[in-house]
From TrEMBL:
InterPro entries: TsoY-like. Signal peptide: none annotated. NCBIfam families: TsoY_fam (NF047644). It comes from the Bacteria. The chain crosses the membrane at residues 12-36, 56-83, 112-133, 139-159, 179-200, 206-230, 250-269, 281-303, 324-347, 359-379. Keywords: Membrane, Transmembrane, Transmembrane helix. This is Uncharacterized protein.
Length: 397
């Protein structure tokens, strides 16, 4: 049973646990996406993986493991989602204490997690509902509407925060010596990639056009807002040093870059199909390589800083507890997912690496190590922060 330490106040960062579990489910879907043939659909469906399993062999084994991973971590996502919804309602006063403080923006963890839920539901429907793809053109408007509702909620939350800050002159660099405000960029980037799904996969021109427009709008706003947050955050850190509890925010740029990269890939496919814009795997090699290399740089720098201030030793492996630590999970998930896109689009589809050759499996093995480390961190943090013993058990200790 999920139970946090009752001596700590509820914080929106607990939603990042559900977000990380949902992202992990998506990471297992990547094996199916790139290793299961699906010539008739843009993503693998029930019929595709069923056919793959019937062939037997090593790839069938990977397919089966991937399906189990999708199911298990989807269940974990929904369990953590339900727990957070209940906790949010039961501890509204804890959330209200964040109002008129820099931490108020952490409420954006709620809409970004809800957007992930839509993605998880879409994957589950495609994989486990036979023939659902025949109705997909009727489902895309529903998905767009769902993302639009989440976008309204997120934009309203962000606008309220910014209005109060600008009106009251609320920006004080000493209180912003971290990059936690990137959670808002993360949210809008998640919405951009969500809308881009219909842009890339819908065969209905008006549906694709609406999705493309909305995706580009949130993509552009994410880029603008990201530059503002990074410039102010880095300046504040240079002046006051990094706020130790917010150390995971140094890695938040990694999932943002993954979402923006996938958005670009999806938009490229949509523009090619509906608007006659020429595209190819080769044309995507440059932006995907830039993003992946930048992510490696951000992770390396962040790791050095968190090793220097003992954050990982204290909050991941040690006794210190903070829900903000769940922010360590999404960067690992994001690096794995972007690595799968970069490897398959930039190297395999361009013919540089032969599918399922020894060189191919070396690349997959490296990404697999990243995934294993990420899953271990998610499970460890979940057990540490959300498996707190009940009073009855503590009495027997």
């Amino acid at each position: 049973m999920l139970r946090r330490n009752p001596n700590t106040t509820y914080h929106p960062s607990y939603w990042l646990a559900a977000l990380g579990a949902g992202g992990t489910a998506v990471s297992f879907f990547m094996y199916l996406m790139w290793m299961v043939p699906h010539k008739n659909t843009p993503i693998p469906t029930f019929a595709d993986w069923s056919a793959q399993l019937n062939t037997g062999g090593f790839l069938a084994g990977i397919t089966l493991v991937a399906l189990v991973g999708v199911i298990l971590f989807s269940l974990m996502h929904f369990a953590l989602l339900a727990w957070n919804i209940v906790e949010s309602h039961q501890h509204k006063k804890d959330l209200e204490t964040l109002d008129n403080t820099p931490a108020e923006l952490q409420r954006m963890a709620i809409p970004v997690t809800l957007a992930m839920t839509v993605n998880v539901l879409f994957i589950l429907g495609a994989l486990f509902v036979p023939n659902l793809w025949h109705l997909v053109e009727f489902l895309f408007p529903g998905a767009i509407a769902a993302f639009a509702l989440i976008a309204f909620y997120a934009t309203r939350q962000f606008a309220r925060y910014m209005a109060k800050m600008v009106r009251g002159g609320g920006y004080r660099s000493a209180e912003h010596n971290h990059l936690s405000a990137l959670i808002s960029v993360f949210t809008f980037a998640m919405l951009a990639v969500g809308f881009a799904a219909a842009s890339a996969m819908s065969h209905t021109a008006i549906t694709a056009a609406i999705a493309t427009t909305l995706s580009i709008a949130f993509l552009a706003f994410s880029l603008l807002l990201g530059m503002i947050v990074l410039s102010h955050g880095i300046s504040a850190m240079m002046e006051h040093g990094l706020a130790e509890p917010a150390s995971p925010s140094l890695w938040m740029l990694v999932p943002i870059l993954t979402l923006l990269g996938i958005t670009w890939v999806r938009l490229s496919h949509g523009l090619e199909h509906h608007f006659g814009v020429e595209g190819s795997a080769g044309s995507l090699f440059l932006p995907l390589t830039i993003i992946f290399m930048l992510q490696l740089g951000v992770l390396t720098l962040g790791y050095k800083v968190m090793k220097a201030n003992n954050y990982l030793a204290s909050y991941l492996h040690g006794d210190k507890e903070s829900p903000i630590s769940f922010g360590l999970v999404c960067p690992g998930v994001a690096l794995f997912v972007m690595g799968m896109f970069w490897w398959h689009i930039g190297w395999v589809k361009t013919g540089i690496v032969t599918p399922f050759s020894p060189a191919y499996w070396v690349g997959i093995a490296v990404l697999f190590v990243i995934q294993v480390i990420t899953i271990a961190s998610l499970l460890k943090l979940t057990h540490k922060l959300l498996r707190y013993p009940s009073p009855a058990k503590l009495a027997h200790v």
